[in-house]
Amino acid sequence: MINVIKFTFKELTKNKAYKLTTLFLVALIVIFFNIPNISRYFNKNEGNKPKITEKETIYIYDENKVLNIIKEDLNKHQYYKFVILNEKADINKLSKDVNDKNSIVYIVKNTDLKNLTISNLKSNNNRSSFENSDINQYINSSYKRYLINKLNINDNEKEILSKDISFIREETVKEAGDINKNTNIAMFGMVFIFYIVLFYSIAVGSSITTEKTNKVVETLLTSTSPLNIIVGKVIGVGLTGILQMSILIITAIISSQVFLPKEYMNMLLLNINLSPIIILGFLYYFIFGFLLYAFLIACVGATVTKQEEIQQAQTPFSLLLMIGFYLSIFSSNSKGLLNTVATYLPISSPFINTMNLLSRKLSLIDTLLPMLVLLISTIIVAYFSSVLYKKVIMNYGTRIKGISLLKELFKKED
């Protein structure tokens, strides 16, 4: 088996496509972490010039000159210019301006200082209510500061009175034991494992097919058993995958430290909470998800007799992988039967449980039981794959498929 692993690892790492893919992904990672620097480089000339931003005009009709006292304070706003008009508002004319020109118009209605009322003419053009809310808050705060400064109190008391309530966001708890943590990377983790499993599993099938069609497998069978060959091929491809992933991860870590500004790194790490258990669980599903599908496609690769048949032979495998992946997506937000099925079904288990580990607080049983089921399933699949591999690897005639393949699996040897 060791010789098969060494042979497979050596052949794949020498492959031009493997080297070019690794170099391309390394370059892509370096470019990704340099996006802020690239953006800064192209904008550096503009950055040296003072930016002139045209402020949007806010019209306030204040016939009784109530807000004239805060006009100067209002016009300290970064984005709005407040024009206070001490004249009576013509509703008909202003309504036309609001709807046709998208003007922002306020009218001082009640001038009683205890109950000052200002109306905002509503546009029919669906102007954002959030924008109007910001303007309302700004006018209110400015007038509030003016009233506070008129009071005969010290600066500390003025500061306390002028303070607004602070609102912050916290992650929600949907149900007992179901905490929304790592939501930013949970879906990314599931998609990452899907593509890794897809890419490297197909590499296993292609490697076995190539060796069969090139008659290399006949040489291997003279020195070792079919079980050692299939397990060695899967481990060999897996090691090349781990090598490639390690290179990419190291590149990403170095690039993030060298090229990425600290504020961007803090944004990427915001709300991410990775414990050792989560990391180990992620690696577990990565390894056994790959092994499960790799042993499945190894059987497919062994049945192929011509290079032209590879694409056709891999189609059912790809379909099975897609079913497992989409089942995980559709059941990820539910807590019913579909979620339970996806959690324990081997074809979907690596994907949905990766997401569960990253986004939910799981009990010990909910963590370990799906792992145990996946482990047992992988061992069973590996065993039957080795049996089938032994029976079909030397077939160079018509490709065995479908029901015939199942019959071959349970057929007694002479």
Please supply descriptive tags for the structure shown above.
four-stranded mixed β-sheet, 414 residues, two-stranded antiparallel ribbon, alpha/beta
Q: Can you tell me about this structure?
A:
The chain is an alpha/beta fold. It contains 18 helices and six strands. It has helices at residues 2-14, 16-33, 35-42, 44-47, 71-74, 91-100, 129-150, 155-162, 183-213, 216-221, 226-258, 262-268, 276-303, 310-331, 337-344, 349-359, 364-392, 403-410; strands at 56-61, 80-85, 104-110, 117-120, 173-175, 178-179. The strands form two sheets. A four-stranded mixed beta sheet has the order 2-1-3-4, with no helix packed on it. A two-stranded antiparallel ribbon has the order 5-6. Helix 13 (276-303) runs antiparallel to helix 14 (310-331). Mean pLDDT is 78; it is low at 172-180.
| Quantity of strands, as a count | 6
Q: Count of helices?
A: 18
Give the N-to-C terminal Cα separation: 26 Å
What structural class results from the helix and strand content? alpha/beta
Mean pLDDT: 78
What's the gyration radius in Å?
33 Å
Strands ordered across the widest β-sheet: 2-1-3-4
Note the beta-strand portion: 5-15%
Sequence stretches where pLDDT stays below 50 over 5 or more residues: 172-180
- Could you give the order of the helices and strands? HHHHEHEHEEHHEEHHHHHHHHHH
The major pleated sheet works out as: 4 strands, mixed
Shape: elongated
**Helix content range:** 55-70%
